[in-house]
Amino acid sequence: MKKSYILMTFSILVSFSAIVTSNFPMPYKNNINFNHTFDTNEIGISEEPPLIIGVRSYSNEIDPHYCWDPYSSNIIEQACEGLFTHNYSDASSNIIPNLASDYGTWSTDGLNYTVSVRQNITFHDGTPFNASAIQWNYNRLSYFMNITGLVPFYEPTSQFTVVYLWSDNTPIINRTEIIDPFTIKYVLNKPYAALEGLLCFSGSFMLSPTSTDPVNLIELDTGGLVGTGPYVYESYIVDTEVTFQAYDNYWKAQPEINSLIFAIYHDPLDLNNALLNGDIDVLMNPLPSFLDVLNASPNINLIDQEERSWTSYYVGMNNNHINQTFREAISYAIDYDYVINTLKNGSAERLKSPIPKGILYSNYSLNVPYLNLSHARQVMKSMGYGVGFTTEIEWESATFATFNYTYFNYSSVLKSIAPLLMNNLSKIGIQIEDAALDSWFEYLMMLVNEPPWDRDMLQLFMVGWVPDFNDPSQLFNVLFNNRTSSNLFNFAQYNGGYGGFEPYDKDNDVQLLMESALEITDKDERKQIYIKIQKLMIERDFPVAWMFTPKVYMAYNNKLDGLQEHTFCNVDEDDKASLKGDITYLKWKPDLISGGPGPSIPGYSPMIFSIFFLIYLSIILRKNKKTKNS
C-alpha cells in the first residue's frame, strides 16, 4: 500500500507539472490560448480570442458595386479584393499587384490594358477566381451603374458612377475581353492613366459569380458578401457588431487571428473609453482629447501617422464672385497655426498642396500662403483698398467687401472656422456674415448646384475631401474640373484657364494640364504635369485657402503584433476612420510572466505552485497513514 501511495503521488505530480509548465500563451480577456499540441475542444477552452475593432458607425449597404462610404468599406475590404491594392506599409501607399500577378501592359495607343491574374485562388464558396470571374464582375458593375440602360427606373444605381465616367459621361472602360483563363484585357474608350488606381477602388472588387445575384444588391443581413479576402463575412447584429471568420484557403496565408469583430459604438466617448477598459483591441483614430491618456497607458500603443493621411480640408471661395486678388489676400490673412494648434488641438498638419502627403506626386515644397498680414494688406492696397492706412484700427474699422461663410451648423469642424474668419479677415477690411445652416441636405444641395439651390448662394465655405483611390486625378479632376458635364464637385467654381492667359496654352491652363495627365501613361511625365498643376494653383490662382490634413492615429492593445503603420487611414470631418490595410498578419503576442510563459495564478510561478501542491499531497498522505495505523 505504501508503494501505491508513492506511485500515485508521483504520477499526479508529474502530470500536473507537465500541464502547468507547458509553453502556453497567457489568457486574453476571458479566453485561454493553449498550445496547439492540445485538443482545445476536448479541454473546453477557446483557442484564441477574437480581434475586436471599435468603430463609430455602419451603413446598411455592403455591396461593393453600389456602396460609396467608409463604413461600408470597413466590411467590404475584409472579405473582398481587387486586382490591385495600395501598399499601406509604405507612406506613399504605392499601387501594387494583388489578385493580379503583376502590373499590366498598355497598348501603344493607350486604349488597351492587359493584365494576368494569379492562379489557384478561390472565392469563399470554392468558386475559382479567373478571367471569367473578372468579366462577370465588371458586367455586374456596369449593370448597377446603368451603363447598359437595363436598370428599372425604380431600382437604385451605383452611388459612385462618376468615378467610372469621363467628363462627357462616357464610361472609362468600354468592355473587358478574356484573352485566356488567367488573362483579361480592359478596353478603354480613351486612354486613362489612372486605371490601376481605379482597379484598387472597392467598386472594382471581386464577388463570387456563383453566390452573388447579378441584378440585385447584396443586403447587409443576408451574409451574401462572398469574395476572395482573408475573412469570411459571417453576421451583422443591428447597431451592435459585424463578425467575420478567417478564410482557411486564403491565397496569401491563413490569417493569424481566426475571428474578427467590428464593435459598433455611436457615442465617441464610449468608443474611446472601450479601448481604455479593454472592451476593444483596436481604435481607429481616437478623439484628440484622449490622445494623452492613451499614450500614457501601459497597455496601449499609440501611433501618429501624420504623413500618411489622404484627407484634405480647405476653405472654398466662390471664384465667380471673389476674384484672384481678393483670394490671395484672404489666403494670407488666415491664422493657420491657430487652426492646427487650438481648433484641432495639434491633431492636424498644415495642408501645403492640393494633394496631401499620402497621395501620389504630392509636393510640399511650394510657396503655400501663410499668415502674413503685411502681404495681405499690400495685396488689398493693390486693388485701391486701405491705401494710406497706418494703424490696426483703420483696417479693422473698414469694410471693403462682405462675404458670407456658409456651413452646416452641427459640424464642429465647419462651425469652428466661422469666428476665425470673422476675426482674421476683419484685419484686412473684409467682413464675414455667419450663414449657418441647420440642414446638411440644404448645404449639400448648394455645394452640388442642385436646383432650387445653387453654388452662387455660397461665397466662403468649408470642405473636406478623401479620394477614392491613390491618384492625384481624384483631387484635381474631381474638385477643380470646369467642364460643364463633370463639375459636380467643383464647389469653388474654379476655372484654371482664365487668368489672362492664352485660352489653350497647355503650360498655363490647369484644365488642359489635368486632362492631359489623365491620358499619359508614362509615370515620370505624369509626375511633372502634376507638379506644374500644384505650382499654378498654390502660387498663382489661390482657388481656395488650403487649411489642414488631419493626423491619423492608431491606438491598440499592446498584446497585438504585426500592425502596419498605415493599416488605418482616411478620416472624415468627425474623425471617423476607415480600415484600409492588410490585417492578415496581425497576431497576439505571447504574454511572458515571471517563471516562464503559461497560465497561472497571479503572483505564483509554476514551480512554486508545484511545491505547494507537493506539500499539500504529503500532508494528505500522512493523515491517511495515521488514520490507518490507528
Question: How does this model look, in words?
Answer:
This protein is of the alpha+beta class and 630 residues long. The protein folds into three domains: 69 residues, no CATH class; 280 residues, D-Maltodextrin-Binding Protein, domain 2, CATH 3.40.190; 239 residues, Dipeptide-binding Protein, domain 3 (Roll), CATH 3.10.105. The chain contains 17 helices and 23 strands. A seven-stranded mixed sheet has the order 8-9-10-1-11-19-12, sandwiched between helices. Strand 8 and strand 9 form a beta hairpin. The longest helix has 24 residues. The chain is globular and about 80 Å long. The two termini are 16 Å apart. The N terminus is likely disordered.
Shape: globular
Any idea what the CATH architecture of the largest domain is?
Answer: 3-Layer(aba) Sandwich
What is the makeup of the main sheet?
Answer: 7 strands, mixed
Q: Largest beta sheet: what is the strand line-up?
A: 8-9-10-1-11-19-12
**Secondary-structure content class:** alpha+beta
The strand count comes to 23
Strand composition percent = 15-25%
Question: Which runs of at least 5 residues are low in confidence (pLDDT < 50)?
Answer: 1-46, 570-576, 592-613
Helix content: 25-40%
Per CATH, the class of the largest domain reads Alpha Beta
Q: Tally the structural domains.
A: 3
Summary?
With 630 residues, the chain is an alpha+beta fold. Helix content is 29%, strand content 18%.
Topology:
Layout lengths: L1 H19 L19 H4 L7 E5 L14 H10 L4 E3 L8 E3 L7 E2 L5 E5 L14 H14 L28 E8 L2 E6 L6 H4 L32 E7 L3 E6 L12 E6 L3 H9 L5 E3 L6 H6 L3 E5 L7 E6 L6 H8 L4 H8 L4 E3 L22 H10 L9 H6 L3 E8 L3 H15 L3 E8 L2 H8 L12 E6 L7 H7 L30 H10 L3 H19 L2 E7 L2 E5 L2 E2 L6 E4 L5 E3 L7 E2 L17 H24 L1
Parallel strand pairs: 1-10, 1-11, 15-16, 15-17
Antiparallel strand pairs: 2-3, 4-5, 5-7, 6-7, 8-9, 9-10, 11-19, 12-19, 13-17, 13-18, 14-18, 20-23, 21-22
